[in-house]
Design goal:
The protein has a single domain, classed as Ribbon (CD59), CATH 2.10.60.10. The protein contains 2 helices and 6 strands. Helix 1 packs antiparallel against helix 2. It is elongated and about 70 Å long. A 6-stranded antiparallel sheet has the order 2-1-4-3-6-5, with no helix packed on it. With 149 residues, the chain is of the alpha+beta class.
Length: 149
């Protein structure tokens, strides 16, 4: 029985990892209350086809980004906050997910970088956490069933 659980866990882990090979990013723009890109961002992969102005695009680099401009991000005369989600050509030099103040398209913005399938939404559970949970469950099941012999 424990071999079946182990095989099922490994199969689930393989499926999770293969899904991670296709990296997509949300792509959209919003300004103020206009558009679906603003925070809180409550869309997932299945919502994309039903929401105008929102798409999930393949991303060769694997790095997604989110840019927040104006609306009090800086003490500038911007009238509303603009949010853009997109695939970026490359991530930070140290390959670490992060958010920071920076300059983008000659404007001061707050920008976030992340690596993973559709990771540039508001809520994000790390795929590494999912892998860890699967491995721990498989390990516990293996130990539990080996004691029952």
């Amino acid at each position: 029985m424990h071999k079946k659980v182990l095989v099922a866990s490994l199969l689930l882990l393989f499926i999770q990892m293969s899904n991670g090979l296709l990296r997509r990013c949300f792509q959209c723009r919003s300004r103020g209350e206009l558009g679906s890109c603003k925070d809180p961002f409550s869309f997932n992969a299945t919502d994309v086809e039903n929401e105008p102005g929102l798409s999930a695009v393949p991303c060769a680099s694997g790095w997604c980004g989110k840019v927040i401009e104006g609306g009090g991000t800086y003490a500038v005369d911007d009238y509303d906050q603009a949010i853009q989600r997109m695939c970026v050509q490359r991530g930070p030099d140290d390959n670490q997910d992060r958010c920071a103040n920076t300059v983008y398209n000659y404007k001061k913005v707050y920008m976030c970088f992340c690596q993973g399938d559709l990771c540039n939404s508001s809520s994000n559970i790390s795929s590494h956490f999912c892998y860890l949970v699967i491995v721990i469950v498989a390990f516990i099941c293996n130990i539990f069933f080996s004691f029952q012999r």
